[in-house]
């Protein structure tokens, strides 16, 4: 196992992508932006993050690590709605990053977020991506009616937006497979288990590193915001507060942009 990474202790199955990244923090976003080191923190924080942030999280943690090498970030990745449910059921979390505002609104209504406010840190946009080599010969959105397509469950942001795009274009899916989150859809695409899938542009960028995928832009939808909010425990956790500050820094924004995320 890679040094500095271990499994989370909570919900091993639910947290199949949940890992602990030995990370760091800075006490102010201005410090993170400038790149000057601090004396460091020596505690930990649990970050519940949308599945679409899985790929970028390690780079964010490594950059964060430069300022506080003794601090630890425990990541739990899942669909945003699943994360809200886990928090409502008592799962320990210090910072929640959602892939949309709707699930963040649901989170802020929980007692675990009393007196908390959300802040948008980045954006992303849904696209249709074919499997390697485009075996289904998909050239436009209408072709999904005759193809095997992977989509997210309707309660998670990528699923909600998928149906918005289909409704806008007055297109019905043919044969589809429904996945728990966008990371699972991306896996279906990468393994060739489906002809295409609806994922974010960040996933499309990641797939393109090793595959020849066709990317089809979707009309009638906007880029979705990614808000973050500290829980009540996070509001008293220096590492969580510092990481939240870091996510608004120029350093973090540049890392997010390198993965295809939008800037705010």
TrEMBL record:
Signal peptide positions on this chain: 1-22
Keyword terms, alphabetized: Metal-binding, Molybdenum, Signal
GO MF annotations, alphabetized: metal ion binding; molybdate ion binding
Highest taxon in the source lineage: Bacteria
Binding site for molybdate: 52, 80, 182, 200
GO biological process, one term: molybdate ion transport
Family per record: Belongs to the bacterial solute-binding protein ModA family.
Protein name: ABC transporter periplasmic component
């Amino acid at each position: 196992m890679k040094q500095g990474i271990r499994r989370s202790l909570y919900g091993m199955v639910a947290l199949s992508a949940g890992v602990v990244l030995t990370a760091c923090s800075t006490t102010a976003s201005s410090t993170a932006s400038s790149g000057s080191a601090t004396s460091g923190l020596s505690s930990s924080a649990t970050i519940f993050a949308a599945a679409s942030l899985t790929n970028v999280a390690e780079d964010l943690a490594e950059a964060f690590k430069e300022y506080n090498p003794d601090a630890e970030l425990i990541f739990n990745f899942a669909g945003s709605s699943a994360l809200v449910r886990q928090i409502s059921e008592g799962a320990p979390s210090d910072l929640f990053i959602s892939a949309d505002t709707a699930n963040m609104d649901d989170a802020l209504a929980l007692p675990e977020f009393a007196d908390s406010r959300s802040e948008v840190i980045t954006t992303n946009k849904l696209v249709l991506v074919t499997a390697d080599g485009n075996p289904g010969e998909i050239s436009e959105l209408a072709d999904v009616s005759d193809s095997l397509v992977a989509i997210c469950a309707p309660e998670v942001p990528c699923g909600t937006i998928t149906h918005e795009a289909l409704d806008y274009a007055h297109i019905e899916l043919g044969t589809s497979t429904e996945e728990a989150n966008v990371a699972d859809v991306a896996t279906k695409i990468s393994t060739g288990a489906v002809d295409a899938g609806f994922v974010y542009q960040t996933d499309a960028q990641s797939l393109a590193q090793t595959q020849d995928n066709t990317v089809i832009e979707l009309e009638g939808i906007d880029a979705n915001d990614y808000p973050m909010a500290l829980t009540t425990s996070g509001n008293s956790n220096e590492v969580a507060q510092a990481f939240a500050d870091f996510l608004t820094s120029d350093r973090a924004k540049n890392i997010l942009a390198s993965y295809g995320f939008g800037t705010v």
